[in-house]
Every structure is written in C-alpha cells, then in structure tokens.
Amino acid sequence: MTYDVFGVGNAIVDIQLQVDDAFLHHIDVAKGLMTLVDAEQQVKVLTALAGRATNRCSGGSACNTIVGVADLGGTAAYAGKTADDDLGQFYADDLRKVGVTVPVPSGTGATTATSVILITPDAQRTMLTHLGISATLSANDIPEAEIAKAQYLYVEGYLFPGETTRAAALRAIDLAKKHGVKVALTISDPFVISLQRDLFWELIKGPVDLLFANLEEARALTGEHEPVNAARKIHQHATNVALTLGADGSLLMHGEQLYPIEGVPVKAIDTTGAGDMYAAGVLYGLTHGMNWKQAGHLASHAAARIVSQLGARLDRKFTPDEIKKLTE
C-alpha cells in the first residue's frame, strides 16, 4: 500500500463546544488564544463543562490535515503518540473510521493529550491544550517503512519547541529524504518561529519541498509585512510556498510563478482547522494530478466549508463530481 500523505504531529483528542464570553471570564482564560495547561488545570476546565453538549474527535493540527486528505478521497496515514487509556483507544479508532492508517505508538505513565476548544458566537476559538504523552513523541516512534510508502510527508511546526518532539520531526524529514518522499512543513504558529527561526530557515533552504504558513507566521519568519513580499522572500529559498490570507484567499508560489487564489465568501461559524483543511486540499490536489492553481482552488473551497460549520472535520464531504467541477 502507498499513501498520498503521511503525517507526523501531536495526537490530541479535541473536545469542542460552544460557549459565551461569560464562560471564558468564569474560567479566566484569554479569548482567541491557544493556552497550554497542565493536567490539573485541564481537569478543572472539564469539570466546569460537565453537563454541556460536546463534540469529541481525534485531532491535532497535522491530524486534521491528514483526515482532510482522506475525506477528499486520498490515502493517508498518521503517526502521533497516545497513552494506553480510553482516550488513546478512541483516538486510534476514530482515525481508522475515516480511513486513516494509524501506526500510532502508545505508551504508559501519562494521559492522552486533550484540547478543549471553546467557540464563541463571533466564531473565535479559545483552546486549552494539555499535551500529555503526546509531548514525548520521539525519533524512535517514527516508522521508516511507512514513511517510505508516501508521496508526501507532512510535519507540523508544533513539534519543534520540544526537544524530543523536534527530534521526531527531524527524524521523519531525514527518512523522507532518504526514500525520495517530498516534505511539506507547516509553521503552525508565530511563536514557533520565535523559538526556532534559524532551524526553520535551515529546513526551508534544505529538505523542505513545500512550506505552509499563514500571514502572521510568514511575517514572523521574514520580517516582511506585505503578503506578496513575504511569499517571495520565502520562495527565494523554498521550492514551493502556500501562504494563506484568511478570507482574502491565498498565495501559491511554484517555479518562480505567483498564483493568487481567491477566497470563498461564507459566513464564518468556527475557524477551527481552516488552515489544516487548506493544506489538505493542496496536498490532495498535488498528489492527484492537479496543477498548483487547481489545487489552490480546491483548498480554498475546502477551507471555506470548514469555517462555515462547527469543528475541524467536514460535515459534508466533497463528492468526486464536486472536486472535478472545482478544478476544471
């Protein structure tokens, strides 16, 4: 079996629900941000949510992209790290249900990671994440034989702040290059650049074939304010660049050509996973014979569909006919 995309990232069970601003004030968290919390803090938050309707699914940034590839009709696999507990079993089972191959290493001594995603009426998401055992993903957990089967390796930037998880990401990239697998890397968050700027430039100038970034991440990386200038500066070193601009669409750069991709007007309900689904659209397109403009067009529509619903999974998948019409 071969995979269109093999993902490596955090393995986090997402727990999503809608709340009002008063609830955020009650639990004293900063609105619109992702905050890392310890196990005790997460238990307190989950206790405060008791009795509320929630939606639970396997998550993590790269995981969302891998599920998106599978939902579009591609073949995909994912490596993260879960604990040998009920949430860890749920995580693996949930991915397999959507067709993702899961060589997920499991371990003992910590809990499976969780992310409580609180969505306010203005579509802002506030995330409280406890990384649990996911933070111990190591180079030894990366399956060489599985990566060798893929067209693309997709690595999330959230792995780079931690020493062991960074080693896992770099090991995966080395194995991909060893086996002729293309490497796609997403920055994930501007704070990653603040911690690992030199390493990211080293990767961009070296093994990375495709870099995904949003505008704030690109600005943090390049120091350029204007989107086109930031994209061009990255493309001086990166073979291919995908720069997302929210509702304004995106910019793709390939072969020194700039491809502006229009945004798709929708009413945003929840922005969770928009960038992840965009990456899924691009990767699916590139591994299924589309040119860059076609892949970007599909990605733009996929991201728009995600923000018009709750959660990072497609409530309504694209049919093959829909994909064909979008890329004609």
Question: Mean pLDDT, rounded to whole units?
Answer: 92
Parts with pLDDT < 50 across at least 5 consecutive residues: none
CATH topology: UDP-N-acetylmuramoyl-L-alanine:D-glutamate ligase
Q: Looking at this structure, what is the CATH superfamily?
A: Ribokinase
Percent helix, as a range, is: 25-40%
Taking all Cα atoms into account, the compactness measure Rg is 18 Å
Q: Describe the biggest sheet?
A: 9 strands, mixed
Structural class, please? Answer: alpha/beta
How many domains in all?
1
Report on this structure:
- It is a single chain.
- The chain is α/β, with parallel strands linked by helices and 328 residues long.
- It has one domain (3-10, 58-111, 135-326): UDP-N-acetylmuramoyl-L-alanine:D-glutamate ligase, CATH 3.40.1190.
- Helices cover 39% and strands 23% of the residues.
- The chain has helices at residues 21-27, 39-48, 61-71, 86-97, 144-147, 163-178, 190-205, 215-222, 227-235, 274-286, 292-307, 320-326; strands at 3-8, 12-18, 34-36, 55-59, 76-79, 82-83, 100-101, 106-107, 113-119, 125-130, 150-156, 182-186, 210-214, 240-244, 250-254, 257-261.
- Strands 7-5-1-11-12-13-14-15-16 form a nine-stranded mixed sheet, sandwiched between helices. Strands 3-10-9-2-4 form a five-stranded mixed sheet.
- Helix 7 links the parallel strand 12 and strand 13 (210-214).
- Helix 7 (190-205) crosses helix 8 (215-222) and helix 8 (215-222) packs across helix 9 (227-235).
- The longest helix has 16 residues, at 163-178.
- The protein is globular.
- The mean pLDDT is 92.
